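Consider the record:
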Amino acid sequence: MAAAPPPPAAGGFVLFLHGSGGSGEEIGAEVAPYFAAPELASSVRLSFPTAPTAPIACYGAAVITAWFGIAEVPITAKTVRDEKEVLKAVEYVHGLIDKEIASGTSPSDIFVCGLSQGGKLPSFICIYIRGLSNNTVSVFIFAGALAIASVLLYPKTLGGCVVFSGSVPLRKSFADKVSPEARKTPVLWFHGMADGLVLFEAGHAGCAFLEELGMTCEFKAYPTLGHSIIEEELQYFQQWILNRLGISGITETARPSSSSQHKDLQ
């Protein structure tokens, strides 16, 4: 006799990927307060995984957290990534999504979000390592990019994808691998026009690429914002998630005691 399917999990599930050198605990401290109101406790579940650590050979094998790496900055619309590393990270994210769906959560209630590397798929992590014979070596791991790559290559329509200061880390040749179901996943993209690490052109081009695929991409540009995440973005992000989950009537939002501004390590 076949086992009964698991009962649907209550509310939505938000998977948020941190940038390189960071941790799930750190980005969770920035994001979780926006979903901490009592009315949301049983409606939105949050997950902040931490990337594995890896030795960085170009800096004496220093070990940092990273989803995947890139060896040049700034990131432009034409920057080439190591797609094998990206796809390995995507496989990990897909595993997390699959596990959540197996527990009973509807794909339409799952949101994949990332900052920089985890927004380099679609958050990005940026670490400046200085030294080595007076040379400057830059190592990037982007979560925002990872978020968008994971959504593009997932075979089902999800609730949404949110990218903070990210870019698309895959060549346009991957367009054929994006299923009709994945193209229905809506995207919210934040990017600062003063971003010197992942250039505004990279974010803008990424959103344009998604629209070429027939996807819906809401692009929010901030003229004076650099490579960081600010309270205004998080407030809009919170409301976007709640609207897509059909949650209304939240009269007060629990926020950090001070203005939130997260930057990748430099």
In short: Helices lie at 24-31, 83-102, 143-152, 200-212, 231-245.
